[in-house]
Design goal:
The complex is a heterodimer of chains A (493) and B (97). Chain A contains 17 helices and 11 strands. With 493 residues, chain A is of the alpha/beta class. In chain A, strand 2, helix 4 and strand 3 form a beta-alpha-beta unit. Chain A is globular. Chain A starts with 8 loop residues before the first helix and ends with a helix. In chain A, 61% of the residues are buried. Chain B has 97 residues and is mainly alpha-helical. The longest helix of chain B is centred in the first third of the chain and has 18 residues. The chains are: A alpha/beta (493), B mainly alpha (97). The interface between A and B is large, with 75 and 54 residues.
Chain lengths: 493, 97
């Protein structure tokens, strides 16, 4: 018998409105789960049980008064600690922001808060969202609820683990190179990265502004469509936010895939380093799409092999510029004993940033510095153009493209920390959609020989989240993936 | 070939105080990462225009209306050191002996 905190939001929403469950009971269910598992997982950097109980009580009051409330009302939510929450500490997983209590709300959180969301806390992540395993968090890594010796993926590993383990029903993350989809894949949940600009970046602590996307973690595809609808829409506070009016992304979700043109990125499945179990599970899922009436053929993204190189020039370049603001003057950590301002800046940043963040700031500073700009950053921007053209050509033939989300299932903690390049390769299938800004989703499609979940990625045209969600929903219904993390099975018997 | 970079120069540009161990490790790791990144030069032809933004937009304006913003106290609340309502920092210009 699953507990309320293990159910999808659409089911919980129905129960709340039918009087079968109160928001207070639901909040206690998720809070109790977090009490039981947090010592193993460390998914949260800051927990907010007091606020959660207040918000749940308010929702119950309004529901019993007969008010019509939005879909997010009463649903326990996890928010990655790179999204600002007014009055609630926001660290971005970094020591340099350890004392930071933001004076303003990010738009994504503000919209959910206004809809009656029940905040469970701020989730652990790689420092400034830079990483693929969560091991770059300055506060210690998150553990994967499927196997505590493995990583949850990154950088939004805390939100992924929290949703997988029932510490929240759904969550927010950010995806710059795959940081929503890859941890969703490794934790067996659904991760959606919408079109660039679909969700406002206001209050998202910047890493690489032209690549940063706010995305969602949910139990299933219907919830992904619902949560996207709750946070999407134009925001005058983000000049890059799309001008489109709000939309209902659950509309036509069950329209099926008959006649849908599905392109399988063949080169990626043939890539060296991909686990055979991943290849098999993804192949089997493609067969199912064909069985459901989709038209399936091989697709090519010839410049994708250069995408990783371009990404590791563009993202660090933007990061080195964005992170220049952490100077120890206006907020956050300041190192003591600086003899002058320059010395104080250097000591503050040297002590406040972790290894990976320093590495990327150095890399970005170098590639933007006099004499190297054209050779590195300028060339990488051209490759970005070629990657976008590849997608445009592929989407002239296909409605969606499919691939594995990650070449492997969750790897062991510590396995890749000594080799930055090996870690970067985790994002080889997710980075191209960040460069092109096109929407993509990861849904669980099976388990590997190690018993760990495998993610299936569906990529769509710019602004066409609907087709991505429709294909994901059809596949999800057909696959009937219902495995749960061992940790949760052990708890609830 | 790993790329040789002047770590001290880059660290100073980036305002990062590094330990000797970090200096050596970053020199080696950045050299390898840049060697890998040089792959971008293989395909980026003369006639390809650079992309700085995935969804190009230009001249995004909003009405020039005065709205409430942070109060002085709220804006200063997170500062490491404050004096008379201003940010206090170590000396910027050396005092003449």
């Amino acid at each position: 018998m699953p507990e309320p905190c293990d159910l999808p939001a659409h089911e919980l929403g129905r129960m709340l409105r039918a009087g079968e469950l109160t928001a207070a009971e639901l909040a206690e269910s998720a809070l109790g789960r977090a009490d039981a598992v947090e010592e193993h997982l460390f998914a949260f950097l800051t927990r907010t049980p007091g606020l959660a109980r207040e918000q749940a009580a308010l929702v119950d009051e309004r529901l019993s008064a007969g008010e019509e409330l939005p879909a997010g009302a009463g649903i326990p939510l996890a928010v990655k600690d790179v999204l600002t929450t007014k009055g609630i500490r926001t660290t971005a997983g970094s020591k340099i922001l350890e004392p930071y209590v933001p004076p303003y709300d990010s738009t994504a959180w503000a919209r959910l808060s206004a809809a009656g969301a029940v905040l469970m806390g701020k989730t652990n992540c790689d420092e400034f969202a830079m990483g693929s395993s969560n091991e770059n968090s300055a506060y210690g890594p998150v553990h994967n609820p499927w196997d505590l010796g493995t990583v949850p993926g990154g950088s939004s590993g805390g939100s992924a683990a929290a949703v997988a383990a029932g510490e929240a029903v759904w969550g927010l993350g950010t995806d710059t190179g795959g940081s929503v989809r890859q941890p969703a894949a490794l934790c067996g949940v659904v991760g959606l990265k919408p079109t660039y600009g679909r969700v406002s970046r206001y209050g998202l602590i910047a890493f690489a502004s032209s690549l940063d996307h706010v995305g969602t973690f949910t139990r299933d595809v219907r919830d992904a469509a619902t949560l996207l609808g709750a946070i999407a829409g134009h925001d005058p506070k983000d000049a890059t936010s799309l001008p489109d009016p709000p939309a209902d992304y659950t509309e036509d979700l069950d329209a099926g895939v008959r006649g849908l043109r599905v392109g399988v990125v063949a080169d990626w499945l043939a890539m060296e380093g991909i686990q055979p179990a991943v290849r098999d599970a993804v192949g089997a899922a493609v067969e199912r799409l064909a069985g459901l009436g989709a038209f399936v053929e091989e697709a090519a993204l010839p410049h994708a092999e250069y995408a990783l190189s371009a990404y590791y020039l563009i993202a660090p370049a933007e990061c080195s510029s964005n992170l220049a603001r952490y100077d120890g003057v206006r907020y956050g950590y300041r190192a003591p004993d600086g003899v002058d301002v320059m010395d104080m800046n250097m000591r503050t940043r040297g002590a406040g940033f972790g290894d990976e963040v320093k590495r990327r700031i150095m890399l970005g500073t170098y590639s933007l510095s006099a004499g190297y700009y054209d050779a590195y950053y300028g060339q990488a921007q051209k490759v970005r153009t070629l990657v976008i053209r590849d997608y445009e050509e592929a989407f002239a033939r296909f409605d969606v493209l499919v691939s594995p989300t990650s070449p492997t299932t969750a790897f062991r903690l510590g396995e890749k920390t000594a080799d930055p390049l090996a870690m970067y390769l985790c994002d080889v299938f997710t980075i191209p959609s960040d460069l092109s800004g096109t929407p993509a989703i990861s849904i669980p499609c099976g388990l590997g020989e190690d018993g760990l979940p495998i993610g299936f990625q569906i990529m769509g045209r710019l602004t066409d989240e609907r087709t991505v969600l429709r294909a994901a929903y059809a596949l999800e219904q057909d696959l009937g993936f219902s495995s749960r993390p061992a940790l949760i099975g052990a708890l609830s018997g | 070939m790993p790329v040789e970079i002047d770590v001290d120069h880059v660290a100073r540009l980036a305002r990062l105080a590094l330990t000797d161990e970090e200096r050596e490790r970053f020199r080696r790791q950045l050299g390898l990462i840049l060697e890998h990144a040089e792959k971008v030069r293989e395909v980026a032809a003369e006639d390809v225009l650079p992309t700085s933004h995935p969804v190009p937009r230009s001249n995004v304006f909003r009405p020039d209306e005065v709205e409430p913003s942070l109060s002085h106290d709220e804006a200063m609340a997170g500062a490491p050191e404050v004096e008379d309502g201003r940010f206090r920092v170590p000396p910027i210009i050396e005092e003449e002996g």
